[in-house]
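Sat 14:20. Reprocessing the chain from the morning session after the first attempt stalled halfway. Input below, unchanged.
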Amino acid sequence: MGMKNIFLFKILILISFFCNSQDNIDKVKFDSLINYQVQKKETLYSISKKFDIEIADIIKYNPELKNNKLRKKEIIIVPLVKKLSSISFSKEIVKETEIDSVSKINEIKIKKNFIRIAYMAPFKIESIIIDSTEQVNAYLKEQNLTTISINFYNGILFAADELDKKNISVEIDVYDTDNKIDQIKNLKNSNDFNKYDLIVGPLINRNYNAFFNTNFKTNSVSPLVYDDITLNSNTIIPVANDSLKRERMFKIIDELILKNEDQCAMIISDSLSKKSKNKLLKRFPLAEIIDLNEINNSVDPKITDSLLGSNKENWVFLETKKSNLISSVTSLLNSQINNERKIRLFSTVSNENYENSNISYEKLGNLSFMYPSNSKPNSSDEFTEFQNKFLLKFGKYPDRISIKSYDVIKDLLLRIAISKSLKNSLYVGETKLMQNKFNYEYNDKFGFQNTSFFILRHEDLDIIDHQN
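Finished this time. Tokens:
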């Protein structure tokens, strides 16, 4: 057995360990939990219908209800599934638009039915003791470079399987970078990477830059990290630039100002968000400012309570990427809403931390929170089917990384298949997959840059998608 086959054999064993070590996950995956006060004459049945969940799911989170009746004003835990709504004139139009967008690229004639890709990731195979089941299982329950590499690989495999059904064969060569520069240089010198149609990774920016310090003919995608990446004519960045998303948010803010000129503005920002703070101050010169730094990294509720106005809307702008701060500020602002004080929360910062399970969607809905995002939640039947098929193949539901991998790689592979090269596929325009959408622009110096993104707004328990 050759060295390459031995390596692939080890990866397959590792994936088998990884999938079998996961806890059994419920068919319905909940995104957040809320505390709900039982109203007069309400039953488990009426509450389940109210929140569109099963009675068994309520009992699972409130085991004491198995043998006891509900009591008026009792506080119970209710699990919620995020809902996605689209602003549109009719449901029929939304449905038709979504189908056309998803299927558009599939309807174009295939010009290339064999695609070769290289996947470079820090599996760190040699550092794992494969013959120790307990040790491997314990290691794979943590989020680390190995599990991230495997989750991303699973997304690639799932995308390749779907393309195979369209008679597009995808050959995947896997390389373990071991997260070491020397290993990356060795791989680069001992393999011909110009034979591939696409290079995926390396996943870490310093490794990516070390590998691409000289140009290749092959297009390469940095799928998970985008900052401090060395760009060239063949680089693919699958997310929109932050400045583009921020510009769109400011345009929406300007439109809202025209509709409501009488509001109280407050800006909560950290040291990394000075530019956005200054742009906000140009629009709200009288805004209250709360600056955060390494010493003062929290917001005093007494200060916000004294600065928020009554009998008019309070617009709070939260400019940070720190998940702990986002969680604490949303909780704080929620506690200060009353009949005379309305608070709306905005951010011009594109941040995956808004989708953190520690952040309550109920609280974000109370604040009508609006922000730019690379991805959007998906509660469609198609997505549920995707999750269940993934579960059957890998023994676990896809996480954020697997979904990102599936969307990014499937889109790129389809573009190559219909046009033979990514550059020739730009005419396709915007495509939508499970949680991400793509519309690439090309620059001779900086390569391919995605320009599609979402502006999302929480409203009650729904997430509204403002179509760009």
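The chain has 15 helices and 19 strands.
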